[in-house]
Amino acid sequence: MLMLIAITLIVPPLLTFIVYKTDKKELRRDIAIICALQMMTLLYGLFVIEDGRPAYLVFAIDDFEAVTPSEVSWAQQNTKMDVITAPTLGLFERSKFVYSPFSSDKEARGRQQTEELTDGISITYRVDNYQPIATADLAIKTKAQPLTQLNNYNDSQRVNNILHHYPTATGWLPLKASVLDMVVLTDTNGAVIDLVNLRPWSE
Questions:
Q1: In terms of domains, do 85 and 9 share one?
Q2: If you count DSSP H runs as helices and E runs as strands, how many of each does the chain have, helices first?
Q3: Residue 18 lies in domain
Q4: H-type helices in 53-119, by residue range?
Q5: Is residue 66 one of the residues assigned to a domain?
Q6: pLDDT value at 88 more than 70
Q7: Does any domain span residue 203?
Q8: pLDDT at 174 > cutoff 90
Q9: Looking at the structure, do residues 128 and 155 belong to the same domain, yes or no?
């Protein structure tokens, strides 16, 4: 993100300053080239951000994991799962909560577990296996941890300030992400309430 900002806001004005000469015949051409390069760089930067931004927040077994479209594509290329395109999020669109359980079919379940152990293809990457998050309410309710545990990994005042905005929250589960692990709040029925900026374990 910082690189994208630098390229977009710093490099083009710098190049314009270098080539700018009022009596230069090719000035308009040079500025047009700089504008075109800036636009291509911006579009590429947005593509990189989009591809690396989590499309899914997947509940599996006992926690959540942030999954990007590129991780889904990698998994599909390395397994025999059905090829399903991961969603493209708008710039202001939130990631989607989903549930990814192991298959109830014994043979399929064994294959999934084997590929996870030998090839590193997590059940959370299997977009063809995704189910609505509401189908996981009972499992989430069973695995949810008490809110008091959040004080072990966060400043208690910060925890209280955040929980003040979620009066129906009764439990939480960790969310693993490549950049920053966070916390998913749940209610007494196991339904997901929201993702909040708290740590789920000691850093």
A1: no
A2: 7, 8
A3: 1-52
A4: 69-77, 106-119
A5: yes
A6: no
A7: no
A8: yes
A9: yes
- 72 and 160 in one domain? yes
Using CB atoms within 10 Å of the CB of residue 43, give its burial: 0 to 12 exposed, 13 to 18 middle, 19+ buried.
exposed
CB burial of 79-107 (b: ≥16 within 10 Å; e: otherwise) equals bebeeeebeebeeeeebbbbbbbbeeeee
More confident of the two residues 18 and 95: 95
Task: Give the tokens for residue 2.
Answer: 């910082």
Cβ neighbours of residue 61 closer than 8 Å, sequence gap 6 or more: 123, 143
The total number of structural domains that make up the chain: 2
Structural domain includes residue 201: no
Name the DSSP letter for residue 105: S
Q: Model confidence over 2-34: pLDDT tens digits?
A: 555 555 566 666 666 565 555 666 667 767 777
My answer on whether 43 and 129 are in the same domain is: no
Q: For residue 20, how far is the Cα from the chain centroid?
A: 42
At residue 36, the pLDDT reads 74
Mean pLDDT of the residues in the chain:
80
Please tell me which residue, 154 or 38, carries the higher pLDDT value. Answer: 154
Closest listed residue to residue 200, CA positions, set 158, 160, 161, 145: 145
Q: What is the pTM of this model?
A: 0.70
Is 85 contained in some domain?
yes
